[in-house]
Design goal:
The protein contains eight helices and ten strands. With about 220 residues, the chain is of the alpha/beta class. The protein has a seven-stranded mixed beta sheet, with helices on both faces. Strands 6-7-8 form a three-stranded antiparallel beta sheet. The structure holds S-adenosylmethionine. The site of S-adenosylmethionine (SAM) has 21 residues, from α1 and α5.
Length: about 220
């Protein structure tokens, strides 16, 4: 499958998955999410305190709630209206939270400029050939010196067992099935720290990386321009 088709199928997968998203992710209410992910939140919160944040691929708003407690404002975006509809049902600590439909590869049509960007569990879904498009789109929306924070997953131990394979551009392809019986293939890449550093070179400086084995997440932050 070509990158365009992969991107299209993944949008569709997450659109249909919206009602089950929080259950799949193991997310409960906001206090339990804050408890569960505290080591990650502590790592990045100084970067987002008081900031005007652009959140990319916000899904059903779980991280938006975390950001809203710390930021001056949050513009939370996703390509799928179905997940934003669910996000809008949640409550947020600040009333300066807004939701916008936006494709992460262009971020066209967003109002305003921002001084921080955040994306959780999104990078792993980007086909390798599309990473520069995503980083260009984000950086174009930020004032110079903004902080970009990316959080994503470390690999599970049994990837082969899960039926994964690689496509021709080296993306790991993961089969997914919804309770409805519909079957999809999504990109699920697990970059190393060195690969991440190479990707953001040219887009930012002051790159910081950390991983957390128990929470099976890596975190990356860098400053623009
Ligand atoms: C694994 S979910 C993560 C959602 C949320 N950040 C979280 O951690 O719960 C991936 C999200 O990416 C969104 N998505 C998929 N393709 C996208 C695109 N091209 N632009 C923006 N969002 C996209 C999906 O709709 C989905 O909400």
């Amino acid at each position: 499958m070509k990158a365009d088709e992969l991107v299209h199928r993944m949008n569709e997968y997450y659109s249909r998955r919206a009602p089950w998203h929080d259950t799949y992710m193991g997310y409960g209410d906001n206090p339990s999410m804050e408890d569960l992910l505290a080591p990650i939140i502590r790592w990045f919160e100084t970067y987002v305190e008081g900031a005007d944040i652009l959140e990319v691929a916000c899904g059903t708003g779980n991280w938006t709630q975390v950001l809203a407690r710390r930021a001056r404002s949050v513009t939370a975006t996703d390509v799928n209206k179905s997940v934003l509809d669910m996000a809008e049902l949640k409550s947020y600590a600040s009333n300066r939270v807004s939701f916008e439909v936006a494709d992460a590869y262009t971020l066209d049509g967003l109002p305003g400029t921002y001084n921080a960007a955040f994306a959780a569990d999104w990078w792993s879904h980007i086909p390798k050939s599309r990473i520069p498009a995503f980083l260009s789109a984000v950086c174009a929306k930020l004032v110079p010196g903004s902080r970009v924070i990316i959080v994503d997953m470390l690999p599970a131990k049994n990837l082969t067992y899960l039926g994964t394979h690689h496509d021709e551009e080296g993306n790991l392809i993961h089969p997914r099935k919804l309770p409805s019986g519909e079957e999809f293939e999504v990109v699920k890449n697990f970059p190393t720290e060195e690969e991440l550093a190479a990707c953001v070179r040219g887009f930012g400086r002051d790159v910081a990386y950390r991983s957390h084995d128990r929470l099976r997440r890596w975190m990356l932050a860098f400053s623009t321009g």
